[in-house]
Target: Adenylate/guanylate cyclase domain-containing protein
Amino acid sequence: MRITCRPDNLVVEASPLHTVLENLLNAGVRHAHACGGNAACSTCRIMILEGSEHCRSMTPAEKKLAERLDLPVHIRLACQTRITGDVTLQRLVLDREDVEVAQHQLRAQSMGSQVSAAILSASLRGMATFDEDNFPYDIVYTLGRYFTQMGALVQRYQGVLASHSGFKSLALFGLKNPQNPQDAVQQALQTGLALLESVANLNTTLRELSYPEVSLTLGIHYGPTILLNIDPQDPQRVSAFGKSVNFATWLESANGELSSQLLISAPVYRAVKEQLSQVQAHPVKPSPNAKTIQVYAVDPRQANLLPKEDSVTGSPLATTQPTGWLETLREWLRAWSRF
Ligand code: FES
Model:
């Protein structure tokens, strides 16, 4: 029997008594096996391209590691796999960098996974004007306050911040309790409404100080999302991508055209429609060749969806009273005007 090995394009004579790893090493292939073939590192992983029916079932050790890393069925550990017929495989860990990635995935306990989540895409607009017209301290304080509030709200509603890029952010909800999409959608919506409220209050402060206002636009969608851990030191730091993420981002950007602040997709609307009183449906085409779909603009004044402590009257985040932050900013302005 033979193993056809890619990307090397080698054909190796194989013995059923040996594992794939042993067969490859015997044939002179320098195949990674950092733990020495003990199903502990996953650096020997291979993708079976053809002949999966000729692969013996997983050993208990392989099964354990595959479950821990959430490996798909066609990814096998060469050090644990024996074959009974011809197989074509792709070697996956080819250099030192690949070994580091594999070890990082092992620490994060995941190779990356697909989950269903509520995705909140947010964009703070108006900062460009700030940048040109005012000194940088304004930006630092305004952004600092916004991002602090966003982090606190996402955390409060059990979400995870997946990325920040400039003034755009992405948060995911439902990762901690994937069995309950209704809750995930509700949490994303509550976070969005509370964020809009907090930016409205931030604008009150900016007006008081005769600065241009900023605006926040949001898109919320629910769907399958691919998660990838991006920080070897922190397994909780993830990046999210996939069609659902792209659609949430598109929703956020479509607010400009529809003169709205918060757009939600049909799955989100279905999950929360009983609680929404002021929603306007819009037929839209996400791209010129796409079919027309319905999206929903939510009136941000639906604070009834927020728990009492987050409403305008009670929220420590939403206060319109002068705060330590505001006093500090005033100090900066006074100091600046003396130059
Ligand atoms: S060599 Fe480490 S898991 Fe196979």
About this structure: Residues 33-35, 37-44, 77, 79 surround FE2/S2 (inorganic) cluster (CB under 6 Å). The chain has nine helices and 13 strands. Confidence is low (pLDDT under 50) at residues 310-326, 332-339. The radius of gyration is 26 Å.
